[in-house]
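Async update (no meeting this week)

Hi team, since we skipped the sync, here's where things stand on the single-chain job. The sequence we agreed to prioritize is pasted below, unchanged from the tracker. I ran it this morning and attached the output directly underneath so nobody has to dig for it. Comments welcome in thread, and please keep replies under the output.
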Amino acid sequence: MSMFLDTAKIKVKAGNGGDGMVAFRREKYVPNGGPWGGDGGRGGNVIFVVDEGLRTLMDFRYNRHFKAQSGEKGMTKGMHGRGAEDLIVHVPQGTTVRDAETGKILTDLIENGQKFIVAHGGRGGRGNIRFATPKNPAPEISENGEPGQERELQLELKILADVGLVGFPSVGKSTLLSVITSAKPKIGAYHFTTIVPNLGMVRTQSGESFAVADLPGLIEGASQGVGLGTQFLRHIERTRVILHVIDMSASEGRNPYEDYLAINKELESYNLRLMERPQIIVANKMDMPDSAENLKTFKKKLAENYDEFDELPQIFPISSLTKQGLSMLLDATAELLAKTPEFLLYDESEMEEEAYYGFDEDAPAFDISRDDDAAWVLSGDKLEKLFVMTNFDREEAVMKFARQLRGMGVDEALRARGAKDGDLVRIGNFEFEFVD
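Output:
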């Protein structure tokens, strides 16, 4: 069974803020001591950190829920609760993090040690020392901690390689990787020997080095899910140069030029921007009897369709088996890499515009709907946040919440919708009667 995993869906939950405390000074000879309840501590963030030692998302196969600790509650003597430690989650280089609900990309993690907060912890609730005023010097009001952010994430691993080897199955990609690098991919005389991407480092005779990825073989219709489908096409996206490996011996009974067109069509169908990457054609298996004649025919057909290309791709005849022509191929690849810039994987429309972790100021403060039992239902991020942070064990806090609802216009809106005195109003599982 393959231990390579390049996609995962997980849930993350940041820690809640600690609750504020209601407390009062009780000192000898100090009558009616003032408020002394401290604030709650901050909840822990969930932070992704790039670890270059990881190669797959296998760690997320069985562990799909990540929850940070909540902050401590406030204490007497005005002491704040301790903030919770952040939850550190290690991910491999090349991990793209996407919000599963909106589809927007949160971050693209490619540098070792790079950090990104995927879920922010809630702030601690205020203790009653914060609510003291000249009119109310001894308030019995405190806040509950703010809920930590909770979200579902889609992770995609796109391996970091400068050069990608593409081509039909059994054209010799794995053999080529094994002779130009120290990688030991599985090699067999049958289709789909390679079922996971293999990565290796190349060092040319002139001293340049670059990473090469051997990707599972493509077949016609791969972009529509045939064969291994698009399962590994995503790994080509980070490469800057494509080595298009072709079996010039036609040992499988296919036409080399038609193979070349078919693979390019699959790359284009998957992502138009893949065709922006420069290609080098690797005419492999030149040690076979018909390869030389087939290469002449291939070059002729390629030249006849020259107008379809901005620049005619370079062609390097090689034999992975006899190691013929490899040094020239590697030098040309290094030279092409040196003048090829990085390609942006995502445009602005795919990225989340702003990482905002509270409620949207432009969104309505609340919504009103009707349940099947005729109860009025109040919802909305701002209203629900106020509700969660209200300590309903304290009468003063309940009255404060009622004033906040009135200030938001909830009473007027309910009245306008036809609410009558005594009607049931519901916020989550909390119910109360409407008073006109």
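Quick observations from my side:
The radius of gyration is 31 Å.
Residues 256-270 form the longest helix (15 residues).
Reply here if anything looks off.
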